[in-house]
């Protein structure tokens, strides 16, 4: 799969603000600062498309990016959305904010007819936090297909990475779960993720 374009389309906190054009959606979620926006930029190769920040809580809305994909054995281009969600488990947002967050994100995740799968990003350097485990279980409970991605893989050596991938699988309660290591810095995992996206685009 070759990505031919990436552009920002819309930000939403309610249904009326979702883009009017309906296309397949691939969603990115994870704790604040885990690297969601960086992954979107590395996937599209458009620098600064999604805002990256050292301060957790940068992304506060559901952000839609339109991408074009050129598949090997097809002439036409297939357009789809990458959807960047606000991080969860961000302490500073406070109780009231968290409730609001949960509501508009839940609404999106449960009602979208175009959602293909959710990429749940977990920091490869640490064991999943309780909020990661809760979110994973919530997605599974609601029959949303999940691809777990272990981010910032460049920060670990090979052996440490393998060890932590096993910890992630075990903590999520699925010992044989496929976890995709990803580095936005080195573009590691990019072609594997594009293959998965390509598969759902031709379905
Ligand atoms: P929120 O929008 O606040 O929820 O954060 P986010 O999940 O979108 O994270 P973001 O992409 O803004 O990245 C957070 C920090 O991690 C930034 O300082 C990035 O430069 C850094 N980062 C993200 N991905 C990688 C990676 O693959 N490797 C390394 N070394 N750093 C990364
Ligand atoms: Mg972000």
Automatic annotation (TrEMBL):
Identify which cofactors the protein needs according to its UniProt entry.
Mg(2+)
Q: Which GO terms describe its biological process?
A: division septum assembly
Q: Which GO terms describe its molecular function?
A: GTP binding; metal ion binding
What InterPro entries does the database record attribute to this sequence? G_ENGB_dom, GTP-bd, GTP-bd_ribosome_bio_YsxC, P-loop_NTPase
Give the record's keywords alphabetically. Answer: Cell cycle, Cell division, GTP-binding, Magnesium, Metal-binding, Nucleotide-binding, Septation
Matching entries from CDD domains are given as: YihA_EngB
Residue ranges annotated for the EngB-type G domain, each copy included: 22-203
Which Pfam families does the record match to this protein?
A: MMR_HSR1
Family from the record: Belongs to the TRAFAC class TrmE-Era-EngA-EngB-Septin-like GTPase superfamily. EngB GTPase family.
Q: Which PANTHER family match?
A: ENGB-TYPE G DOMAIN-CONTAINING PROTEIN, MSS1/TRME-RELATED GTP-BINDING PROTEIN
Q: Which NCBIfam families does the entry link to? A: GTPase_YsxC (TIGR03598)
Function description: Necessary for normal cell division and for the maintenance of normal septation.
HAMAP family for this protein: GTPase_EngB
Protein name in UniProt: Probable GTP-binding protein EngB
């Amino acid at each position: 799969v070759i990505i031919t374009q990436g552009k920002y389309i819309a930000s939403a906190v309610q249904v009326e603000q979702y883009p009017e054009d309906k296309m397949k959606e691939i969603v990115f979620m994870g704790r604040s600062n885990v690297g969601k926006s960086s992954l979107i930029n590395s996937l599209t190769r458009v620098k600064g498309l999604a805002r990256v920040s050292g301060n957790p809580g940068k992304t506060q809305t559901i952000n839609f990016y339109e991408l074009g994909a050129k598949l090997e054995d097809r002439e036409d281009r297939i357009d789809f959305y990458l959807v960047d969600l606000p991080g969860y488990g961000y302490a500073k947002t406070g109780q009231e904010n968290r409730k609001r967050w949960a509501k508009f994100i839940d609404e999106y995740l449960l009602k979208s007819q175009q959602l293909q799968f959710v990429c749940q990003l977990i920091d490869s350097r640490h064991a999943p936090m309780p909020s990661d485990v809760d979110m994973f279980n919530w997605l599974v409970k609601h029959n949303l297909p999940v691809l777990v991605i272990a981010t910032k893989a460049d920060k670990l050596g090979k052996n440490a990475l393998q060890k932590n991938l096993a910890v992630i699988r075990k903590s999520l309660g699925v010992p044989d779960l496929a976890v995709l290591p990803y580095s936005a810095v080195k573009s590691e995992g990019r072609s594997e993720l594009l293959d998965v996206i390509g598969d759902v685009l031709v379905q």
